[in-house]
Structure formats: structure tokens, C-alpha cells
Amino acid sequence: MKHDHVVVQSPDVPPRQLLLLFHGVGDNPVSMSEIGRWFAPHFPDALVVSVGGPAPSGPEPGREWFSVQGVTEENRQARIDEIMPRFVETVRYWQRQSGLAGAATALIGFSQGAIMALESTQAEPDLASRVIAFNGRFARVPAQASTGVTVHFIHGGEDRVIELAHAADAAEALVQLGGDVTLDIIDDLGHAIDERSMERAIEHLRFTVPKRYFDEALSGGKPKDDDIIELL
Known about the structure:
Strand 2, helix 1 and strand 3 (46-51) form a beta-alpha-beta unit. Helix 2 crosses helix 3. With 232 residues, the protein is of the alpha/beta class. The chain has helices at residues 29-39, 76-98, 112-123, 164-176, 195-207, 211-218, 225-231, and strands at 5-9, 17-22, 46-51, 55-56, 63-64, 105-110, 130-134, 150-156, 180-186. The protein has a seven-stranded mixed beta sheet, with helices on both faces. The protein is globular, with a radius of gyration of 16 Å.
């Protein structure tokens, strides 16, 4: 399923990484593509795509994945679950287009886009190997974790739209479940992405080694060199 999208970068040779960006409620893929332009120079072998939500939201060209009208802690999960198959198929579509699998895929979302990316780790644990969640949250504290996906929360300490506590509680739960997670707090930032957020995100994508590699080493296994190159 191909929704409205912006291809930020398409390498001349077959890509070795896939970076998919997802915007917040009422925003659009053109706007979020500006965030993608920060990533592109650091990952020249990556296909970088900003993906639009499937439903209109507010004034054109605003889009969303699920409605936030009347959303509550009780009904948020059901709304996410209803649209999740479409989100997963959208990611799979771009994986088919790029010829890459989950090991070489990073999902990068802001606000509702981060919510969808985070929740996909519960619905399809092998969908991607990295999630960058700018000011995002899980609908509920996660109940499972996999070392096959690394979750990076990057959150404004002054966010009043999605409170930092949601990210902090989820990060703690993932650690307790044996998952792979980091939490960076930008102290004086609200519900936004700034240069400091981007620096943290790029640093994590470039230099953080997924926990699963350590687990494989301890068990006597050895990750394929191609896997490491695709992720780092």
C-alpha cells in the first residue's frame, strides 16, 4: 500500500538501508521529509522515505493514522490495532521496493508517527531493527520485548502533549523485559524536534550496537558482516 510519500534520498546503487519517517497528527510527508534530510547525508547508501498517514486530518494537506478526536487511555489501543495492519503493509511495501528486510530497516517517527512505529514492535517484532521515537509513547506499557529491535526514545523534558513519563515508563518496562532501549531527555524542549534531538538520533543510528549482537556473541554465535554494515 503506497500512501502519499516523499522520497528524500534514493541511492544510485541498490540501497543497503531503509529509513522510513512518519509524521504527527495533522502534519504531512512533505514537512516530515525535512527531518529526513538531516539523516540522508549520514547514510548515503540508504533509501530515505517520508510516509504520509492514510487519512485526512484537519486542513489540507494534514494526514493521520488514527483519529485523536475523543481519544482516551482506554480507547487508544483499539484505534491503533485497527490501523496497524495497514501500517505494517506500508513498511513491507517499501521493504519490497528496496529489496531489504527488517534487519536493515529503521522506523523514525514523531508524535503519532512514533506511536505507530513503537506499537509495530509489539505487533510485528521483526518489522524493523531500529525505532527512533521522537516525543512518542506506547498506547500501554509494552508487554513484550525483543533484542532484535532497538528502541531509541528521544523526548522533550517539557513536552505537555505526550508526557515524558510515558516514554520513561515504557523504557523501564522494556529493560525489565530484557529489551534493547535508550532514553534521551532534551530538558527544555517541548513537543518538537530540534537540532539536539537530531544529533542524538543520528548518533544512535550510526554508533549504537544492538543488544542482540552481544547476546549472539555470548551464545557463541556471530552476526553476519552484512547485517552489521546494514545497521551501522
